[in-house]
């Protein structure tokens, strides 16, 4: 599963290319920090909450989950999660759900996010998924353009029901 990026970085700094690998428990704090590093994440994430450790353990134990990090010299600079969903629709097709794609602020704009998504596409294909889908909050217009540049199409209306209230 681990694969080193082969892209030539577009900005002038000399850097070691990141390695995309399975997340380890030691990465959890950095992952949560990435999730909290935007206007929506600041409202919903709670760095330091012990619930993240239980969630990580559940993800790690589930063979249909792939939580990955982009690691550059021991620093977590990105993360994503893939969930594989077996289904009957589309002649029994497996879907891959892409979630929580985040790149550390000082790494944004250099192509890392695109490399991570292309890697996720390859992982989904490698696991036999026929569809890769994602949801993105309506307010994330830049993210929508990013995904469209990578070939994703707006095809559905997503809806959610908050079960906590």
TrEMBL record:
Tell me yes or no: is Hydrolase among this UniProt entry's keywords: no
Q: Which domain of life is it from?
A: Bacteria
Signal peptide, first to last residue: none
The record's keywords, sorted A to Z, are:
Acyltransferase, Transferase
Pfam families the record matches: Acetyltransf_1
Question: Would the keyword Transmembrane helix turn up in this protein's UniProt record?
Answer: no
Q: Which organism is it from?
A: Saccharopolyspora gregorii
| Boundaries of every N-acetyltransferase domain copy | 18-165
Q: Which InterPro entries match?
A: Acyl_CoA_acyltransferase, Bact_Acetyltransf, GNAT_dom
The name this protein carries in UniProt is GNAT family N-acetyltransferase
